[in-house]
Amino acid sequence: GRLSPRQPITPAPFALYALNAPGGGGTLSLPFAGTNTTNETAIAVTNSGLAPAAAFATDNPSNAQAAIVASTAGSDPGLLAMTGGSGPAVWGMTGEGGGKAGLFMVQGATATQTALGAENSAMGSAGHFKTTKPENTTPALVVETFSDGPAATFTTHSDLNNANFEPTVTSDNHPFGSAGQFSLSHHLSIPHALRLHTTADRK
Predict the structure, then answer these.
(1) pLDDT tens over the chain, length 203 residues
(2) Residue 98: left (phi > 0), alpha (psi -120 to 50), or beta?
(3) Nearest-CA neighbor of 102 among 118, 119, 122, 125?
């Protein structure tokens, strides 16, 4: 049983080494840092069972760092989540600790990017805000601004070939309250609480 032609003895493959190396059993020694200079995915994990493909956690209450940090120097997203099922691609959840379920921020004194953008290229809504607890008396959506601009702007885009005659804003109240309320709470306020203006022929 000689090999023909003869072959040199080489080190064991990395997978076999990782399985049998000290502290092995498929484990990975931490901290670990690596660099990939190819056009292939650096780390790819697939779970064909019923558990998550990966789990990251910080369990030190004094730790103020994120459990996962994703960044990019290119034009694609720093983090991309996709789903082919009925569940959401991203789900943010918080409990009684007082933290937010999600936070989007743009930093920089002259930055003009949008902090959060929602776009739907299918037939559904681009955003949906809902409170499900009957005892909750807070609004489902709160919009605030500390600048000189408006707190919210609603715009409908259409042309003569695809005319849209639906209102830009629709307000509907199913119970017994008002469908809308506009007020000025500052005693020095000069503008009207509600201003209506149109440049079309229809009024």
Answers:
(1) 555 666 555 554 444 444 555 544 456 788 888 999 999 999 999 999 999 999 999 999 999 999 999 999 999 999 999 999 999 999 999 988 888 999 999 998 899 999 999 999 999 999 999 999 999 999 899 999 888 888 888 888 877 667 777 888 888 888 788 888 888 887 777 777 788 877 766 55
(2) left
(3) 118
Residue where the block lists tokens 């789900």? 91
- Find the DSSP H helices in 36-117: none
18 burial type by CB count under 10 A (0-12 exposed, 13-18 middle, 19+ buried): middle
At residue 158, φ and ψ (nearest 5 deg) are -160, 170
Could you identify the residue written with the tokens 């200079």?
37
Contact 105, 115 (CB under 8 A): yes
Helix (H/G/I), strand (E/B), else coil: 159: strand
Contact 82, 90 (CB under 8 A): no
